[in-house]
Amino acid sequence: MNQHLARLYKIAQQPSRRIIGLMSGTSLDGLDVALCRLHGHGTNTRLELEQFATVAYDEDVRYRIRQVFARPQVSLEYLTLLNPWLGQLHADMILQCLLKWHISPQEVDLVASHGQTVYHAPQHQHQNPDFPLNATLQIGDGDQVAVRTGIITLSDFRQKHIAAGGEGAPLAAYGDYLLLSSAEEERLLLNLGGIANFTYLPRAGQDASTAFSTDTGPGNTLLDATVRAHRPELAYDEDGRLASLGQVHEGLLNELLGHPFFAATLPKTTGPELFGPAYLQQAQERTGTTGLGLEDTLATLTELSAHGVAQAAKQVFGSKPALAVYASGGGAHNPALQSALRRHLPACRFATTDVLGVLPDAKEAILFALLANEAVAGQPVSIGAGRQRVPAVSMGKISFPG
Ligand SMILES: Nc1ncnc2c1ncn2[C@@H]1O[C@H](COP(=O)(O)OP(=O)(O)OP(=O)(O)O)[C@@H](O)[C@H]1O
Ligand SMILES: CC(=O)N[C@H]1[C@@H]2OC[C@@H](O2)[C@@H](O)[C@@H]1O[C@H](C)C(=O)O
């Protein structure tokens, strides 16, 4: 037997596995690295987050990714070069974290690498009649990560979801279902990253097939782009301070909300390909608000993000959803966004995933560790028959280190 396959076979039989989950999201702020100890598998999984770090991207890394990020036309040579380069970068960032944590690569069983989404193209968005399918592209080659770290690596998780009829995202439903279902309450796990999404979890023991996750529209992506355009020295509007000084412009808000994405049925996915600067620019031109000040634009965009979440929740749970909402992602640190959400969903109870024992900033990196754990030691995660877009599949392609 191939020695790496034998090692994998052994890892699969262990009572627990040490897995590094990696996520590099749409905000391009850095690589989230979550060192997880996962005991068991399936709905009996228990998570210990041993370490977590976000290794910041410097301006050069961000510049390189932006050359292809969410752009319909790019240099094919550049993309080809960026794929292994990013794999090497992520491998080096893992090694840097392990050194800091005084852990050797031999003490880690698996790496679960999401890579960097450079283009997301669900059919409803690309509408190319020659390609009647959903598509998405993550780069940062898994073989580079495996060879450079010496750790068996799973990567490219989204393609199986697409092959089985999904849009490749959000995959959050799988991890949330395994880790965060509760017999006491129905839950909404709300992730406020560049793009906002939520998972609905019915009470554990109830019909699991009603669980699903969906994107709801922009989270921080337009806020960040707007701040950077006006104030290049800032990465984002810290604590929503600028937004809270502004007034919502109702005309611009209504124009932005007029995009058919918001009324489309759930579940659905999107990305900065749609919710990018051009979307905002066109809406401003149509409403004569191109001169709107930074604070008012941010207030309006904060309202847009909250409205997207609330509209999606209302589509499923009626006009006054009363659910326990647990927030994660960078937007969970933004008081302006949080207060807009509370206003839109007054009957919901809000907290962050911290109270459930999941560090909000680490949640997405943990998701990929959970998916790798299932692919190796569990079964395809089955949330129940009938629910579209949560197919029971194992995700992740396996790279051996040699
Ligand atoms: N203190 C804060 N105040 C306001 N916003 C914040 C704060 N901290 C983080 N953020 C926002 O969160 C963003 C980073 O969020 P996160 O890391 O969840 O995004 P991501 O993982 O890249 O996105 P996605 O989940 O869409 O892939 C920042 O760019 C910023 O907009
Ligand atoms: C294609 C892609 O990378 N989508 C991301 C993105 O970031 C947030 C949102 O859009 C979500 O759909 C997804 O990531 C999370 C981890 C998911 O799949 O659940």
UniProtKB/TrEMBL annotation:
Please name the pathway: Cell wall biogenesis; peptidoglycan recycling; Amino-sugar metabolism; 1,6-anhydro-N-acetylmuramate degradation
Q: Does the keyword Nucleotide-binding apply?
A: yes
Q: Which Gene3D superfamilies match?
A: 3.30.420.40
UniProt: ATP binding residues: G25, T26, S27, L28, D29, G30, L31, D32
Role, per record: Catalyzes the specific phosphorylation of 1,6-anhydro-N-acetylmuramic acid (anhMurNAc) with the simultaneous cleavage of the 1,6-anhydro ring, generating MurNAc-6-P. Is required for the utilization of anhMurNAc either imported from the medium or derived from its own cell wall murein, and thus plays a role in cell wall recycling.
Return the similarity comment: Belongs to the anhydro-N-acetylmuramic acid kinase family.
Name of the protein described by the UniProt record:
Anhydro-N-acetylmuramic acid kinase
Organism, by scientific name, is: Hymenobacter gelipurpurascens
